[in-house]
Amino acid sequence: MSKKDGLPPRMRKIGHAFYHVSHHYDENGKSVRPNVPLGSDRAKALTKWAEIEGSNCPSPLGTFGYCIERYIRDILPEKTPKTQRNYLRSAKAITAAFGKVQTTGIKPMHIYKYMDGHPKPLVANGDIKLMSVVFSYAMRWGECSINPCRGVRRHSEPPRDRYIEDFELQEFITAASPSMKVIIELAYITAMRKGDLLGIMISDVKPDGLYVRQGKTGKRQIFEWSPELRRIVAEARALPRRVHTMYLFTSRNGTPYSSDGFDSNWQRIMKRTGIAGVHFHDIRGKSITDAKAASGIDNAQALAGHKNSSMTEQYIRSRGVQKVTPLK
Fold this sequence. Notes:
single chain, mainly alpha, DNA polymerase, domain 1, hpI Integrase, Chain A, 3 domains, three-stranded antiparallel sheet, globular
């Protein structure tokens, strides 16, 4: 797998397009590397890659490697680019460990052994998460009758507790480029996730508000117009853009921001401010925490798009600060 692009074996990104690359030999015995174009859309390219790989050398039926390959081919292209990258990394690791094992032969003890022997506990958690997902589909496909990952306790992960102070948020906004400035401002007043922000299309801007469908939950939201929201969206639409661009926020070439490209911009902002240890997602945490403090848990829950208030409380609990009056 390419460490740079997070792509599976024999898949490369050249320019803005993806290609399948494999070794073949001509009639003189010389090695050649034909590039099969897969297109510029990552999800569609991944599907074509899986079709080529599947026709070349599929894992034997009944093995867990077969289930992983089928999941990558049939299910993974429907996921977000971030999920695709994370799952492809995990797929390589669990294929190396379990790919040749019969699906029905994997037991909880084998999963615990994998976790205990992994040098990075949180990475191991991600690998087991993908294993559980693949097993769920394997049950549907008739490859097994139980999911051995269920009931397996993963390594504990400390909750993210970084709260962005008001002055820090203002420093980020001041140090940002015009496009990043409006993205940061919109992220704060809406608590949207990065992927949902970057996926906003100009057609989502409607007379009664800004329409958003959360990529993680599928929940639909309408952010009603407020003076601040109108100003930010107006500034976003006034940014230099190519005529036929459909997205509200784009890179210089008119295409949607890639996750890596956006993260690079965020790192530059942090370097300019000298504020370290802040993730862009922490803006969402600040937004939800501030919403509860200003207008209660109901508004914070609506802003977050959570199914219930307990999810919202759990999300902001680690960022909340208890005020204490010292003794006289």
